[in-house]
Design a protein that fits this description.
The chain is mostly helical and 425 residues long. The protein has 18 helices and no strands. It is globular. Keywords: Cell membrane, Membrane, Transmembrane, Transmembrane helix.
Length: 425
């Protein structure tokens, strides 16, 4: 490795500290992720207590992704046309209000399973706007050469906040109850929205650093449907981007048993409760933090394709190993935590290079549409996988599902490895 590359790596994080808008944005992300991680334990346990049904849990998880499939392709155009900052502020505030209502209903004992479907649908719909909007803001704040370091550092900081939230979740639930823990998540959304109020991005600022400023101006004169078709045509013309999106969709399908049936796995296989759920979550996020920090420092020395393939293969292997704790008589929880650490370590090798590549090759005027389309493709298989996981979980052991879907997850890694064009990015 040359001295120039080493110097660039060491200077990357230091240069990020000079971008105040980026620091404010990452602070808002940290606040919201902390609340989300506390809520993830409280909410999942609340759903399990209210429903007690694997099938209903799978159905509810599937509903979480229906808005993304139904609306994301269309919301991306609106995000490109609207103020990204205002979109992020409104969606964060809206999600904070929704979580507050659900927490209060649970506290007074009036929360019903059908309420969960409505609140989940609302939050997921708001996320259809917030995700592409946040993605569009990043390259308007950071120069291209800092995108990989910036995305990696943001990921690591977010995961650190999640880790802190998971570590505090058990104590907060014991002290404040499930509804109190959920209110912390609601407050974090409202605080994040307030942070974005102070982020100032001039319209001309994004154009000065954008080589496609002419395209940005031309896009403004197009109708909604013309912009929609332009975004589809752009993605269709990038085979490597399509390959990555479709591979991610397959991986999301394979991950649904873990996401849907994790409380069941913790109770039936690991013989634990909220503590076990929190511990394996901490292990997963710790792996993501460590790999994210490594990528932010040394990731630029490797091809993005190599990082992505490594992540796919490692994720498949460690996921399938979650079958092993069912065979252990002693310390199955800690064995599962070790494998979840490996899964977390692998995830950053996939997510960060993929998002960075997308930001690098996509004109800023299209980032909302491309990001929304990516979200649609990557999540389209999740409702099917969720229903399948909920149904299969009633007949097959959860650990068996983890083994089968973990082995299936190796397929996209091997496929991408065999594609010479992909391995050049």
């Amino acid at each position: 490795m040359s001295e120039t590359v080493l110097l660039q790596q060491n200077q990357g994080v230091r240069r990020l500290a000079k971008h105040k808008l980026y620091l404010m944005m990452i602070t808002a992300k940290i606040i919201s992720r902390f609340g989300d991680s506390v809520d993830s334990i409280a909410y999942s346990w609340m759903v399990y207590l209210l429903t007690g049904s694997e099938l209903l849990m799978g159905t509810l998880y599937a509903i979480n992704f229906v808005p993304g499939i139904a609306f994301s392709m269309f919301t991306g155009v609106l995000v490109d046309r609207w103020s990204k900052k205002k979109v992020v502020i409104v969606t964060n505030a809206g999600r904070g209000i929704t979580v507050t209502v659900s927490a209060l209903l649970f506290f007074i004992g009036d929360l019903q399973p059908w309420h969960l479907f409505i609140f989940t649908f609302i939050n997921s719909t708001l996320e259809c706007f917030s995700t592409p909007a946040e993605m569009s803001l990043v390259p308007r704040i950071l120069p291209k050469e800092l995108l990989l370091s910036g995305n990696s550092l943001t990921s690591s900081a977010s995961r650190t906040a999640e880790l802190a939230g998971l570590a505090a979740a058990g104590g907060l639930i014991a002290m404040l109850g499930i509804s109190g823990a959920m209110l912390i998540d609601a407050l974090s959304f409202l605080l994040a929205a307030l942070m974005y109020v102070w982020i100032r991005i001039d319209r001309d600022q994004g154009q000065e650093v954008d080589n496609d400023a002419g395209l940005m101006q031309a896009e403004e004169s197009l109708s909604y449907w013309s912009q929609f078709k332009t975004g589809l045509k752009f993605v269709k013309g990038h085979k490597l981007m399509m390959m990555t999106m479709l591979s991610a969709a397959f991986v999301n399908l394979c991950l649904t048993p873990k996401n849907v049936l994790e409380p069941v796995y913790v109770k039936q296989i690991l013989h634990s409760g909220p503590y076990g759920l929190s511990l394996i979550g901490i292990a997963l996020i710790t792996g993501m933090i460590i790999s994210g920090l490594w990528i932010s420092q040394k990731g630029s020395a490797y091809r993005k394709s190599s990082l992505i393939v490594f992540g796919f293969l490692l994720l498949g292997v460690t996921y399938s190993l979650l079958y092993v704790p069912a065979l252990l008589r002693e310390y199955p929880l800690y064995a599962a935590a070790a494998f979840c650490f490996g899964m977390g370590f692998a995830i950053s090798f996939i997510n960060t290079p993929v998002s960075t590549y997308m930001m690098e090759v996509t004109p800023k005027a299209m980032l909302g549409r491309v990001g929304a389309l990516s979200s649609t493709i990557c999540t389209c298989a999740i409702p099917v996988g969720s229903l399948l996981a909920g149904w299969a979980g009633a007949f097959v052991g959860v650990h068996v599902l983890y083994l089968v879907f973990g082995l299936l997850m190796l397929i996209p890694g091997v496929y991408l490895w065999s594609q010479k064009g992909f391995m050049k990015i």
